[in-house]
Specification:
Blueprint (H helix, E strand, L loop, with lengths): L2 H12 L10 H17 L3 H20 L8 H10 L5 H14 L6 H17 L5 H22 L3 H14 L3 H12 L6 H17 L6 H13 L3 H13 L3 H14 L3 H17 L3 H8 L7 H19 L3 H19 L6 H8 L5 H6 L7 E4 L4 E4 L3
Antiparallel strand pairs: 1-2
Helix pairs in contact: 1-3, 2-3, 3-4, 4-5, 5-6, 6-7, 6-8, 7-8, 7-9, 9-10, 9-11, 10-11, 11-12, 12-13, 13-14, 14-15, 14-16, 15-16, 16-17, 17-18
Amino acid sequence: MTRQRIRSCFSCLLAMVCFASLLCAQDFKKEEIRLIQMINQEKNLTTRNKCIDSLLYVFEQQEKTGTYQQKNDLLRATFMFRSAAPRHFKIDTLLYRAIYTYENTVGDAILLQYCANLNNCLLVASADKQPIYKTRMLQCVFNFTAWNEQQHYSEQTKKSIQLFQKQIIPVCADYTLAADIWLHTLPKLRSEKTKVLQFLKNEFEHNQCTQERTYNTVLDSLLALEPSAALWLNKSIFYAEKADYVNEYNSLNKAKSLCHDPEIQDSLHYLLVKNRFNAKEYLEVVGLSREQNTHFKQAILLLAFQSIIKQNERCSASEFEKKMNSFYAYQLLKEASQLGKVDEHLAAEITSRLPTNEELAQHELKLGDKYHLKCWDLNIILEL
Protein backbone atom coordinates (compact mmCIF):
# COMPACT_ATOMS: atom_id res chain seq x y z
CA MET A 1 0.00 0.00 0.00
CA THR A 2 1.46 3.41 -0.98
CA ARG A 3 2.00 6.20 1.50
CA GLN A 4 -0.70 8.26 -0.15
CA ARG A 5 -3.24 5.46 0.22
CA ILE A 6 -2.24 4.86 3.84
CA ARG A 7 -2.64 8.56 4.51
CA SER A 8 -6.07 8.54 2.78
CA CYS A 9 -7.29 5.56 4.75
CA PHE A 10 -6.03 7.04 7.99
CA SER A 11 -7.83 10.29 7.26
CA CYS A 12 -11.13 8.43 6.74
CA LEU A 13 -10.71 6.50 9.98
CA LEU A 14 -9.84 9.67 11.84
CA ALA A 15 -13.19 11.14 10.83
CA MET A 16 -14.90 8.40 12.84
CA VAL A 17 -13.81 9.88 16.21
CA CYS A 18 -16.09 12.18 18.14
CA PHE A 19 -16.07 15.41 16.13
CA ALA A 20 -18.69 17.07 18.28
CA SER A 21 -16.22 18.05 20.98
CA LEU A 22 -13.45 19.04 18.59
CA LEU A 23 -14.98 20.69 15.53
CA CYS A 24 -17.08 23.79 15.05
CA ALA A 25 -19.73 24.16 12.34
CA GLN A 26 -17.20 25.50 9.88
CA ASP A 27 -14.88 22.57 10.54
CA PHE A 28 -17.74 20.13 9.92
CA LYS A 29 -18.40 21.80 6.59
CA LYS A 30 -14.74 21.60 5.61
CA GLU A 31 -14.58 17.96 6.62
CA GLU A 32 -17.74 17.26 4.61
CA ILE A 33 -16.27 18.81 1.46
CA ARG A 34 -12.93 17.03 1.94
CA LEU A 35 -14.51 13.62 2.44
CA ILE A 36 -16.74 14.03 -0.62
CA GLN A 37 -13.69 14.84 -2.72
CA MET A 38 -11.84 11.81 -1.36
CA ILE A 39 -14.82 9.53 -2.06
CA ASN A 40 -15.01 10.74 -5.64
CA GLN A 41 -11.27 10.26 -6.18
CA GLU A 42 -10.59 7.10 -4.22
CA LYS A 43 -10.20 3.94 -6.32
CA ASN A 44 -9.89 1.41 -3.53
CA LEU A 45 -13.38 0.13 -2.60
CA THR A 46 -12.57 -0.61 1.03
CA THR A 47 -11.07 2.82 1.56
CA ARG A 48 -13.94 4.52 -0.22
CA ASN A 49 -16.51 2.74 1.98
CA LYS A 50 -14.69 3.88 5.08
CA CYS A 51 -14.71 7.44 3.80
CA ILE A 52 -18.46 7.14 3.13
CA ASP A 53 -19.01 5.96 6.71
CA SER A 54 -16.93 8.93 7.90
CA LEU A 55 -18.99 11.36 5.84
CA LEU A 56 -22.24 9.92 7.16
CA TYR A 57 -20.86 10.34 10.67
CA VAL A 58 -20.15 13.99 9.90
CA PHE A 59 -23.73 14.46 8.73
CA GLU A 60 -25.00 12.90 11.96
CA GLN A 61 -22.87 15.25 14.04
CA GLN A 62 -24.16 18.19 12.02
CA GLU A 63 -27.71 17.09 12.85
CA LYS A 64 -26.89 16.82 16.55
CA THR A 65 -25.36 20.31 16.62
CA GLY A 66 -28.10 21.87 14.49
CA THR A 67 -25.78 22.71 11.60
CA TYR A 68 -27.02 20.12 9.10
CA GLN A 69 -28.44 21.57 5.87
CA GLN A 70 -31.41 19.66 4.49
CA LYS A 71 -30.40 20.55 0.94
CA ASN A 72 -27.90 17.69 1.42
CA ASP A 73 -30.69 15.12 1.88
CA LEU A 74 -30.32 13.63 -1.60
CA LEU A 75 -26.55 13.50 -1.38
CA ARG A 76 -26.68 11.97 2.08
CA ALA A 77 -29.30 9.38 1.01
CA THR A 78 -27.18 8.45 -2.01
CA PHE A 79 -24.10 7.83 0.15
CA MET A 80 -26.22 5.87 2.63
CA PHE A 81 -27.25 3.58 -0.21
CA ARG A 82 -23.58 2.98 -0.93
CA SER A 83 -22.61 2.31 2.69
CA ALA A 84 -21.87 -1.20 3.95
CA ALA A 85 -25.02 -1.23 6.14
CA PRO A 86 -27.72 1.04 4.63
CA ARG A 87 -30.21 2.49 7.11
CA HIS A 88 -33.36 2.16 5.02
CA PHE A 89 -35.72 4.03 7.33
CA LYS A 90 -33.34 7.00 7.51
CA ILE A 91 -32.91 6.91 3.73
CA ASP A 92 -36.70 7.00 3.37
CA THR A 93 -36.92 10.04 5.63
CA LEU A 94 -34.26 11.86 3.62
CA LEU A 95 -35.65 11.00 0.19
CA TYR A 96 -39.25 11.71 1.19
CA ARG A 97 -38.24 15.10 2.55
CA ALA A 98 -36.13 15.87 -0.49
CA ILE A 99 -38.79 14.85 -3.00
CA TYR A 100 -41.93 16.25 -1.37
CA THR A 101 -40.84 19.09 0.90
CA TYR A 102 -37.92 20.73 -0.82
CA GLU A 103 -39.08 20.02 -4.37
CA ASN A 104 -35.79 18.72 -5.63
CA THR A 105 -35.78 17.63 -9.23
CA VAL A 106 -37.09 14.06 -9.23
CA GLY A 107 -35.03 12.46 -11.98
CA ASP A 108 -35.12 8.83 -13.08
CA ALA A 109 -32.35 7.68 -10.74
CA ILE A 110 -33.79 9.44 -7.68
CA LEU A 111 -37.30 8.15 -8.33
CA LEU A 112 -36.14 4.55 -8.75
CA GLN A 113 -33.89 4.88 -5.71
CA TYR A 114 -36.86 6.08 -3.67
CA CYS A 115 -39.13 3.21 -4.81
CA ALA A 116 -36.41 0.61 -4.31
CA ASN A 117 -35.88 1.85 -0.77
CA LEU A 118 -39.63 1.78 -0.07
CA ASN A 119 -39.50 -1.90 -0.92
CA ASN A 120 -36.51 -2.36 1.40
CA CYS A 121 -38.37 -0.59 4.21
CA LEU A 122 -41.37 -2.82 3.67
CA LEU A 123 -39.22 -5.93 4.01
CA VAL A 124 -37.78 -4.91 7.39
CA ALA A 125 -40.70 -2.95 8.86
CA SER A 126 -42.94 -4.37 11.56
CA ALA A 127 -46.45 -5.39 10.49
CA ASP A 128 -48.07 -2.25 11.95
CA LYS A 129 -45.67 0.01 10.02
CA GLN A 130 -45.89 -1.69 6.63
CA PRO A 131 -49.06 0.17 5.47
CA ILE A 132 -47.09 3.44 5.68
CA TYR A 133 -44.76 2.33 2.91
CA LYS A 134 -47.62 1.01 0.81
CA THR A 135 -49.22 4.45 1.07
CA ARG A 136 -45.92 6.10 0.10
CA MET A 137 -45.78 3.92 -3.02
CA LEU A 138 -49.36 4.84 -3.95
CA GLN A 139 -48.57 8.54 -3.45
CA CYS A 140 -45.49 8.14 -5.64
CA VAL A 141 -47.62 6.66 -8.44
CA PHE A 142 -50.08 9.56 -8.04
CA ASN A 143 -47.33 12.17 -8.42
CA PHE A 144 -45.58 10.27 -11.19
CA THR A 145 -47.81 11.79 -13.91
CA ALA A 146 -47.07 15.35 -12.80
CA TRP A 147 -43.35 14.66 -12.46
CA ASN A 148 -43.29 12.98 -15.85
CA GLU A 149 -44.54 16.18 -17.51
CA GLN A 150 -41.33 17.87 -16.35
CA GLN A 151 -38.84 15.01 -16.43
CA HIS A 152 -40.08 12.90 -19.37
CA TYR A 153 -39.07 9.63 -17.75
CA SER A 154 -37.70 6.81 -19.85
CA GLU A 155 -39.90 3.85 -20.76
CA GLN A 156 -37.71 1.65 -18.58
CA THR A 157 -38.36 3.91 -15.59
CA LYS A 158 -42.12 3.77 -16.22
CA LYS A 159 -42.03 -0.02 -16.38
CA SER A 160 -39.93 -0.16 -13.21
CA ILE A 161 -42.45 2.00 -11.32
CA GLN A 162 -45.23 -0.36 -12.37
CA LEU A 163 -43.20 -3.34 -11.14
CA PHE A 164 -42.48 -1.65 -7.81
CA GLN A 165 -46.19 -0.89 -7.44
CA LYS A 166 -47.14 -4.52 -8.04
CA GLN A 167 -44.45 -5.69 -5.64
CA ILE A 168 -45.29 -3.27 -2.82
CA ILE A 169 -49.09 -3.26 -3.35
CA PRO A 170 -49.76 -6.73 -4.77
CA VAL A 171 -53.39 -7.37 -3.74
CA CYS A 172 -56.62 -5.48 -3.09
CA ALA A 173 -56.21 -5.64 0.68
CA ASP A 174 -52.96 -3.68 0.30
CA TYR A 175 -54.74 -0.95 -1.65
CA THR A 176 -57.23 -0.69 1.19
CA LEU A 177 -54.44 -0.37 3.77
CA ALA A 178 -52.67 2.28 1.72
CA ALA A 179 -55.81 4.26 0.86
CA ASP A 180 -57.10 4.20 4.45
CA ILE A 181 -54.00 6.09 5.62
CA TRP A 182 -54.12 8.54 2.74
CA LEU A 183 -57.80 9.34 3.31
CA HIS A 184 -56.87 10.73 6.74
CA THR A 185 -54.33 13.15 5.25
CA LEU A 186 -56.16 14.49 2.20
CA PRO A 187 -55.33 18.00 0.93
CA LYS A 188 -57.59 20.74 2.27
CA LEU A 189 -57.94 22.46 -1.10
CA ARG A 190 -61.10 21.11 -2.76
CA SER A 191 -59.56 20.72 -6.23
CA GLU A 192 -56.50 18.90 -4.89
CA LYS A 193 -58.63 16.66 -2.69
CA THR A 194 -60.78 15.76 -5.69
CA LYS A 195 -57.68 14.83 -7.73
CA VAL A 196 -56.45 12.45 -5.02
CA LEU A 197 -59.88 10.85 -4.53
CA GLN A 198 -60.35 10.41 -8.28
CA PHE A 199 -56.91 8.81 -8.50
CA LEU A 200 -57.76 6.37 -5.70
CA LYS A 201 -61.07 5.54 -7.38
CA ASN A 202 -59.29 4.83 -10.67
CA GLU A 203 -56.66 2.67 -8.95
CA PHE A 204 -59.29 0.53 -7.22
CA GLU A 205 -61.12 0.09 -10.52
CA HIS A 206 -58.01 -0.52 -12.63
CA ASN A 207 -56.84 -3.21 -10.22
CA GLN A 208 -60.31 -4.75 -9.96
CA CYS A 209 -60.62 -3.95 -6.26
CA THR A 210 -64.07 -2.39 -6.36
CA GLN A 211 -65.40 -4.74 -3.68
CA GLU A 212 -63.09 -3.29 -1.04
CA ARG A 213 -64.93 -1.24 1.60
CA THR A 214 -62.49 1.65 1.12
CA TYR A 215 -63.54 1.94 -2.51
CA ASN A 216 -67.04 2.72 -1.27
CA THR A 217 -65.57 5.25 1.19
CA VAL A 218 -63.76 6.96 -1.69
CA LEU A 219 -67.05 7.14 -3.62
CA ASP A 220 -68.78 8.68 -0.59
CA SER A 221 -66.00 11.27 -0.29
CA LEU A 222 -66.33 12.21 -3.96
CA LEU A 223 -70.12 12.41 -3.67
CA ALA A 224 -69.75 14.77 -0.72
CA LEU A 225 -67.70 17.08 -2.95
CA GLU A 226 -69.84 16.84 -6.08
CA PRO A 227 -72.78 14.43 -6.46
CA SER A 228 -73.17 12.85 -9.88
CA ALA A 229 -75.20 10.10 -11.56
CA ALA A 230 -71.99 8.28 -12.51
CA LEU A 231 -70.78 8.08 -8.90
CA TRP A 232 -74.15 6.82 -7.67
CA LEU A 233 -74.06 4.22 -10.43
CA ASN A 234 -70.61 3.14 -9.17
CA LYS A 235 -72.09 2.75 -5.70
CA SER A 236 -75.00 0.72 -7.05
CA ILE A 237 -72.55 -1.67 -8.70
CA PHE A 238 -70.63 -1.96 -5.42
CA TYR A 239 -73.82 -2.95 -3.59
CA ALA A 240 -75.07 -5.21 -6.41
CA GLU A 241 -71.95 -7.34 -6.24
CA LYS A 242 -72.57 -7.76 -2.52
CA ALA A 243 -76.23 -8.64 -3.14
CA ASP A 244 -77.22 -5.61 -1.04
CA TYR A 245 -80.33 -4.94 -3.06
CA VAL A 246 -81.76 -2.23 -0.81
CA ASN A 247 -78.72 0.03 -1.06
CA GLU A 248 -78.32 -0.81 -4.75
CA TYR A 249 -81.93 0.25 -5.36
CA ASN A 250 -81.48 3.52 -3.44
CA SER A 251 -78.25 4.29 -5.30
CA LEU A 252 -79.86 3.65 -8.69
CA ASN A 253 -82.77 5.94 -7.83
CA LYS A 254 -80.36 8.72 -6.85
CA ALA A 255 -78.42 8.19 -10.05
CA LYS A 256 -81.63 8.41 -12.07
CA SER A 257 -82.68 11.61 -10.30
CA LEU A 258 -79.39 13.29 -11.30
CA CYS A 259 -79.43 12.03 -14.89
CA HIS A 260 -80.92 14.07 -17.71
CA ASP A 261 -79.90 11.92 -20.67
CA PRO A 262 -82.95 9.91 -21.89
CA GLU A 263 -80.90 6.93 -23.05
CA ILE A 264 -78.98 6.70 -19.76
CA GLN A 265 -82.27 7.10 -17.86
CA ASP A 266 -83.59 4.09 -19.79
CA SER A 267 -80.48 2.14 -18.75
CA LEU A 268 -80.98 3.07 -15.11
CA HIS A 269 -84.66 2.14 -15.30
CA TYR A 270 -83.70 -1.29 -16.63
CA LEU A 271 -81.18 -1.72 -13.79
CA LEU A 272 -83.91 -0.82 -11.30
CA VAL A 273 -86.18 -3.51 -12.77
CA LYS A 274 -83.33 -6.01 -12.70
CA ASN A 275 -82.60 -5.07 -9.08
CA ARG A 276 -86.21 -5.74 -8.07
CA PHE A 277 -86.13 -9.07 -9.91
CA ASN A 278 -82.92 -10.14 -8.14
CA ALA A 279 -84.47 -9.07 -4.84
CA LYS A 280 -87.47 -11.31 -5.69
CA GLU A 281 -89.79 -8.32 -5.51
CA TYR A 282 -91.79 -9.61 -8.48
CA LEU A 283 -94.84 -7.39 -7.95
CA GLU A 284 -92.61 -4.33 -8.27
CA VAL A 285 -90.98 -5.74 -11.42
CA VAL A 286 -94.33 -6.00 -13.15
CA GLY A 287 -95.27 -2.50 -11.98
CA LEU A 288 -92.03 -0.99 -13.30
CA SER A 289 -92.40 -2.87 -16.58
CA ARG A 290 -95.43 -0.72 -17.43
CA GLU A 291 -93.34 2.45 -17.47
CA GLN A 292 -92.03 3.86 -20.73
CA ASN A 293 -88.61 2.60 -21.85
CA THR A 294 -87.36 3.00 -25.40
CA HIS A 295 -84.02 1.21 -25.34
CA PHE A 296 -84.53 -1.74 -22.96
CA LYS A 297 -88.23 -2.52 -23.33
CA GLN A 298 -87.80 -6.12 -24.48
CA ALA A 299 -85.42 -7.02 -21.63
CA ILE A 300 -87.81 -5.47 -19.12
CA LEU A 301 -90.81 -7.33 -20.58
CA LEU A 302 -88.94 -10.62 -20.29
CA LEU A 303 -88.14 -9.90 -16.63
CA ALA A 304 -91.81 -9.13 -16.04
CA PHE A 305 -92.76 -12.36 -17.81
CA GLN A 306 -90.44 -14.37 -15.55
CA SER A 307 -91.74 -12.53 -12.49
CA ILE A 308 -95.32 -13.59 -13.23
CA ILE A 309 -94.22 -17.21 -13.59
CA LYS A 310 -92.28 -17.11 -10.31
CA GLN A 311 -95.01 -15.29 -8.42
CA ASN A 312 -97.88 -17.41 -9.75
CA GLU A 313 -97.75 -20.05 -7.04
CA ARG A 314 -97.63 -17.42 -4.30
CA CYS A 315 -100.57 -15.23 -5.16
CA SER A 316 -103.05 -17.40 -7.08
CA ALA A 317 -105.96 -18.73 -5.03
CA SER A 318 -107.14 -21.21 -7.67
CA GLU A 319 -105.93 -23.11 -10.70
CA PHE A 320 -108.04 -20.91 -12.95
CA GLU A 321 -106.44 -17.77 -11.47
CA LYS A 322 -103.03 -19.25 -12.21
CA LYS A 323 -104.04 -19.80 -15.84
CA MET A 324 -105.30 -16.24 -16.09
CA ASN A 325 -101.99 -14.96 -14.76
CA SER A 326 -100.33 -17.10 -17.42
CA PHE A 327 -102.57 -15.33 -19.95
CA TYR A 328 -100.98 -12.03 -18.89
CA ALA A 329 -97.50 -13.57 -19.04
CA TYR A 330 -98.28 -14.81 -22.54
CA GLN A 331 -99.25 -11.29 -23.61
CA LEU A 332 -96.02 -9.84 -22.22
CA LEU A 333 -93.97 -12.49 -24.04
CA LYS A 334 -95.86 -11.77 -27.26
CA GLU A 335 -95.12 -8.05 -26.89
CA ALA A 336 -91.44 -8.85 -26.27
CA SER A 337 -91.32 -11.05 -29.37
CA GLN A 338 -92.43 -8.07 -31.47
CA LEU A 339 -89.28 -6.25 -30.39
CA GLY A 340 -86.88 -9.09 -31.16
CA LYS A 341 -86.41 -12.84 -31.11
CA VAL A 342 -87.39 -14.73 -27.95
CA ASP A 343 -86.86 -18.29 -26.85
CA GLU A 344 -89.36 -20.53 -28.66
CA HIS A 345 -89.45 -22.92 -25.73
CA LEU A 346 -90.77 -20.13 -23.50
CA ALA A 347 -93.61 -19.45 -25.93
CA ALA A 348 -94.52 -23.14 -26.15
CA GLU A 349 -94.45 -23.58 -22.38
CA ILE A 350 -96.59 -20.56 -21.54
CA THR A 351 -99.10 -21.43 -24.28
CA SER A 352 -99.63 -24.83 -22.64
CA ARG A 353 -100.63 -23.08 -19.41
CA LEU A 354 -103.39 -20.93 -20.93
CA PRO A 355 -107.07 -21.60 -20.15
CA THR A 356 -109.09 -23.33 -22.86
CA ASN A 357 -112.19 -21.77 -24.41
CA GLU A 358 -114.27 -24.22 -22.38
CA GLU A 359 -112.60 -23.11 -19.14
CA LEU A 360 -113.26 -19.49 -20.03
CA ALA A 361 -116.87 -20.27 -20.76
CA GLN A 362 -117.27 -21.98 -17.38
CA HIS A 363 -116.40 -18.60 -15.84
CA GLU A 364 -118.66 -16.73 -18.24
CA LEU A 365 -115.67 -15.36 -20.15
CA LYS A 366 -114.62 -15.35 -23.79
CA LEU A 367 -111.81 -13.87 -25.89
CA GLY A 368 -112.13 -10.09 -26.05
CA ASP A 369 -113.50 -9.75 -22.51
CA LYS A 370 -111.76 -7.87 -19.71
CA TYR A 371 -110.53 -9.71 -16.65
CA HIS A 372 -109.18 -8.31 -13.38
CA LEU A 373 -106.02 -9.99 -12.07
CA LYS A 374 -106.14 -9.72 -8.31
CA CYS A 375 -102.47 -10.62 -7.90
CA TRP A 376 -101.29 -7.72 -10.07
CA ASP A 377 -104.26 -5.41 -9.46
CA LEU A 378 -104.80 -4.72 -13.16
CA ASN A 379 -107.27 -5.46 -15.93
CA ILE A 380 -106.29 -7.38 -19.04
CA ILE A 381 -108.13 -7.98 -22.30
CA LEU A 382 -108.25 -11.64 -23.16
CA GLU A 383 -106.46 -11.58 -26.49
CA LEU A 384 -104.10 -14.09 -28.03
